[in-house]
Amino acid sequence: MENKIRMLRAEKGMTQEELAEKAGVTRQTIIAIEKGKYVPSLELAFKICKVFDKKIEEVFNY
Amino acid sequence: MYNNMSYKTFKWVRIFMAMFIAATVSIAVTIENVYLALAAVIIGMISMLLIKKNVKEVLVDEMVNSIAGKSALMAYSIAVPVLAVLSLVFMFSNLKERGSDMYNLGIILSYIALGQMFIYSFFYYYYQRKYGRDGE
């Protein structure tokens, strides 16, 4: 599973810590997702998409 | 109550609490007072629970739970067979001396292994029911 979280975060000038706070997870989880080492649950994927105001297919690719 | 603790502060408080418990238990062992040791452990556990609630940052999320689940399964998969084999070794190597310390140790280890299997089976069944894997 690939994702564009790092790119979207850079566009918004958002740090990993800020995204983690908004998504309600730890910074380590955001780092793992960005690196593709951890596949988030559907709930967390939707939360991340909501932060960026994007559709799920615009953030995650399978 | 202090309701906005950062993770950094929490880490220091956790270290302090561990030191407090270790020191108190050491003193309790030295003066042979089991109640003091129990009190220190219980106070430490309750304090940590209360402190955790006041940390503003997220400490446990789905990835932490996932890692904990995998670690628990790995620990169980290693501990139970090791305990079972050890218990059999202790029991069968002391069959002629039933009632000896080593034979009893084997029995105790086998009960610990059985206890772990029971707890694992209980929670496996519980979560299976919770998540609806009961054939419906």
Task: Describe what you observe in this structure.
The complex is a heterodimer of chains A (62) and B (136). Chain A is mainly alpha-helical and 62 residues long. Chain A has helices at residues 5-12, 16-23, 27-34, 42-52, 56-59, and strands at residues 2-3, 60-61. A two-stranded antiparallel sheet of chain A has the order 1-2. In chain A, helix 2 (16-23) packs across helix 3. Chain A contains five helices and two strands; from the N terminus they run E-H-H-H-H-H-E. The model of chain A has no long low-confidence stretch (mean pLDDT 94). Chain B is mainly alpha-helical and 136 residues long. Chain B starts with 6 loop residues before the first helix and ends in a 6-residue tail after the last helix. Classes of the chains: A mainly alpha (62), B mainly alpha (136). At the A-B interface, helix 3 of A face helix 3 of B.
Short description:
Chain A has helices at residues 5-12, 16-23, 27-34, 42-52, 56-59; strands at 2-3, 60-61.
How are helices and strands ordered from N to C of chain B?
A: HHHH
Report the β-strand fraction of chain B as a percent range: under 5%
Estimated structural class of chain B = mainly alpha
Helix content of chain B: over 70%
Number of strands of chain A: 2
Large-scale geometry of chain A: globular
With helices defined by DSSP (H or I, 4 residues minimum), what is the helix count of chain A?
A: 5
Largest sheet geometry of chain A: 2 strands, antiparallel
How many strands in all of chain B?
0
Mean pLDDT of chain A: 94
Radius of gyration of chain B: 21 Å
Strand content of chain A: 5-15%
Q: Radius of gyration of chain A from the CA trace?
A: 10 Å
* Backbone shape of chain B: flat
| Widest sheet: strand ordering of chain A | 1-2
Low-pLDDT parts of chain B are: none
Name the helix and strand elements of chain A from N-terminus to C-terminus, one letter apiece.
Answer: EHHHHHE
Class by alpha and beta content of chain A: mainly alpha
Low-confidence stretches of chain A: none
Question: Biggest interface, which chains?
Answer: A-B, 13 and 8 residues
